[in-house]
Amino acid sequence: MRFGYFDDENREYVITRPDTPLPWINYLGSEGYYGLISNTAGGYSFYKDARLRRLTRYRYNNAPLDMGGRYIYLRDFETGHYWSPTWMPTRAKLDTYECRHGMGYTLITSSKHGIFAKMRYFVPLGANLEVWDVDLTNNRQTEAAIDLFSAVEFSLWDAWDDSTNFQRNFNTAEVEVPELGKTLNEMSPENNTIFHKTEYRERRNHFAYFSCSEPIIGFDTQRDDFLGPNRGWDDPIVIENGSSTNSVAHGWQPIGSHHLKVNLQPGESKRIIFLLGYHENPKAYKFDPVGSNIINKLDVWPILREFLDPSRVDAAFLELKHHWDSLLGKFMVQTPDVHTNRMVNIWNAYQCMVTFNMSRSASYFESGIGRGMGFRDSNQDLLGFVHIIPERARERILELAATQLSNGGAFHQYQPLTKRGNNDVGSGFNDDPLWLVLGTAAYVKETGDFTILDELVPYENETGTEMPLYEHLQRAMQHTLNNLGPHQLPLIGRADWNDCLNLNCFSDTPGQSFQTTTNQEGKVAESVFIAGQFILACQEMVQLSELHAIDGSDITFSKLPTAFYKEKALQMEDAVWAAGWDGNWFRRAYDAFSEPVGSKLNTEGKIFIEPQGMCVMAGLGVENGKAVQALDAIAEFLATPHGIVLLNPAFTHYYLNLGEISTYPPGYKENASVFCHSNPWIMIAETMIGRGDKAFDYYQRINPSAREAISEVHRCEPYVYAQTIAGKDAPTHGEAKNSWLTGTASWNFVAITQHILGIRPTYKGLSVQPVIPEDWQGFTAQRLFRGVLYNINVERKGKGNLVELFVDRQRIQGSVIPIPPDGTTEVQVLVYLR
Ligand code: BGC
Ligand code: NOJ
């Protein structure tokens, strides 16, 4: 069952009824000011940090689920009937409803009682505010007198404190309110703007404003006066009565609500612009007059005047559209499959940008107060983003590297505002450092910019410890080598990619965090996954060490020879074959007693997905048939119609020696759900043994667009990937959870574009080596790579994956297109597959 449809032409998903199985959301903003917005205008906004600079409130486990947002109420003056044109929060039945989520904007339209309402929400580029562009049309035969009320609930900035520290924060709220009745007929922000300034009197230099473009006849800023005793957002007393109380918040719950009169002749329309924004004043100019507690608004009025002007709003919206056209235009494909086309060209790329910006901080499943930026997460997030804005990927890599420990290890997380490693979560996740090598490699392959390797970067942000990024990578590699276990496999530490495989934790205390609680000293438990990851990273170091000349004169560290990484990769491979191969697939790990995990010797958790993916991606078993064996085992034990589950059989009870993985009921999260992030590894592995049909089949199973038709089962948004889909052992098999912020976005983008379609950046140029389904006759693509546009045309001539490459009509050996001479802007690429 569907709840909408894709409008690919306009790059929108169109939701045709408000009661989707879950709120289906979108993101506004991509620079500093951000918002989450659902299809019924729910959600919240923040400036840069979802925890520390939260503008508006949202309660995650509320009922109804999606309560709190950017609300408009309309009230018929004659009859007193009122409704929300976004359906929530009144849920009064609408005559028509449509929500269009697009690239950085959301447009909700509806009609009721002959009033058509159109609300477009977006954040203009370069601005720290969001626009609500509201347009009302009277489709009645008679004049309509409508009272319009806006409503937002302010958060007291620190979202954690805001939802816990009530004894203090019920006293602190302060606002400044408009002076009513001054110049009713002209647009003047001075008379229409509500300011939220809690704690501005003391150490905060920032405040929020909520303004509108039309004269107002009233306002409210105290929530309980607006709602009335024991009422909710669905039936505020102010709306029922049709008049604001002009309340001024002193403590309690500050809100912003405007009251406007809109009189419309038959057929007449009226446009009203609301602005919700964030502003910081220099400390020295906080107050006006000096010595008062009144906000100095000198710098805000011009911003308000600018964006309250409808023509400026139109221009800003066009700029946003063009911005996304140019970002997404960098990589376009036309394949025989509509789901592939729209995910690659629109939604998957868009999700990669959002994940890059948000890491795991703010979604409808991530509260924005829980986590900082993950070290491994951010390194992987840039894999699918680096071609979109390489300069931002570069910045991120350097930021990540600056949190690295001098022994090569990594803090698991860092804080986006301070850019410092997060001590609460600490370190010891032994896969973390290696992701820095893989992330950096992806950047260099995309851009050819080897200079990043020479950038001086400190350890743990300590001045005086700076070393070239290249040395950071060497130490990351060395970190693995310094931490080998009894089978010469990498020690797992606190955990590897699978945060929940906690082999040194042994937690038996309720409520203890598996992520942070003190672990036993882990000198025994080993990870086969990290072994595969290390070999993959060695392959990058082999190439980086060969291709990157380090100037001998200012060398501050010793550069290890290429042969070193070749040798270490071989040794690790030997260790994997000696202790990591179970007979039919790769083992997952060794626990703290040196017993195998993910082996036929186990009764539960006999086979795991991660080592099959990682080891085959590193090339293990590709030559000797073992990769085929491992991938066939995946097909037999882990593949389901809804994707590939993480392990099998699922754990049915808690294992002290395995940790959090066995806390989840069977089929959920790390305990045998389809943990989507790991599925693309298998797709890539399948392409490595030449099985394009299988790779593409797995791609389709979790592709949200391909699952749109079963939205009542999938339940999450059909336009973005979710972290998990309940596995075959779960009563709700096929149900997705935790949409948007997942490494799946990047990895699936990599799997489909670089391995199935085979358009892959390499150090020496763009390579085209598709492994596509046998019945595809070909496809075309346009790829901007290092400033040159590659027009790629792939045609199937035989059933296999052999590539015959022509560049500007010249036959070229191999699959890598040589870097064209300077000044070239376009290259024609023809590939025959035989
Ligand atoms: C989740 C993991 C996640 C970890 C991060 C665990 O509870 O199951 O998926 O990586 O928390 O803190
Ligand atoms: C989500 C976490 O953000 C990620 O770092 C981890 O790899 C996966 N869960 C698997 O546990």
Low-confidence stretches: none
The tally of beta strands, per DSSP, is 42
The kinds of small molecule bound in this structure are: beta-D-glucopyranose, 1-deoxynojirimycin
> Mean pLDDT across all residues, rounded?
96
Our Rg estimate from Cα atoms comes to 28 Å
For the largest beta-sheet, the strand count, sense and barrel status come to: 10 strands, antiparallel
β-strand amount: 15-25%
Estimated structural class: alpha+beta
Strand order of the largest sheet: 1-2-9-10-11-12-19-16-15-14
**Total number of helical segments?**
19
**Cα distance spanning the termini:** 40 Å
| Helix content estimate | 25-40%
Shape: globular
Brief rundown of the structure:
This protein is of the alpha+beta class and 834 residues long.
Tell me what the structure shows.
The structure is a single chain. The protein has 834 residues and is an alpha+beta fold. A ten-stranded antiparallel beta sheet has the order 1-2-9-10-11-12-19-16-15-14, with helices on one face. Strands 6, 7, 8, 13, 17 and 18 form a six-stranded antiparallel beta sheet that branches. The mean pLDDT is 96. Residues 499-500, 515, 660, 669-670 line the site of beta-D-glucopyranose (BGC).
Jot down its keywords:
binds beta-D-glucopyranose; six-stranded antiparallel sheet; 19 helices; ten-stranded antiparallel sheet; binds 1-deoxynojirimycin; 834 residues; alpha+beta
Can you lay out the helices and strands and say which pair or pack?
Layout lengths: L3 E4 L4 E4 L9 E4 L4 E6 L6 E3 L6 E3 L14 E6 L5 E2 L12 E7 L2 E8 L2 E8 L6 E10 L5 E14 L1 H4 L3 H4 L5 E2 L17 E3 L9 E7 L5 E5 H5 L9 H5 L12 E11 L4 E12 L19 H8 L2 H19 L2 E4 L3 H21 L14 E2 H7 L8 H12 L11 E2 L17 H16 L8 E2 L9 E2 H13 L44 E2 H20 L14 H19 L8 E2 L5 E2 L9 E2 H9 L8 H13 E2 L2 E2 L2 E2 L25 E2 L3 H10 L3 H11 L8 H4 L7 E4 L10 E4 L4 H13 L2 E4 L2 E4 L9 E8 L2 E9 L6 E5 L2 E3 L3 E3 L7 E8 L1
Parallel strand pairs: 38-42
Antiparallel strand pairs: 1-2, 2-9, 3-4, 4-5, 6-13, 7-8, 7-13, 9-10, 10-11, 11-12, 12-19, 13-18, 14-15, 15-16, 16-19, 17-18, 20-37, 21-22, 23-24, 25-26, 26-27, 28-31, 29-30, 32-33, 33-34, 35-36, 36-41, 37-38, 39-40, 39-42
Helix pairs in contact: 7-19, 8-10, 9-10, 10-11, 10-12, 11-12, 12-13, 12-14, 14-15, 14-16, 16-17, 16-19, 17-19
The structure holds beta-D-glucopyranose and 1-deoxynojirimycin.
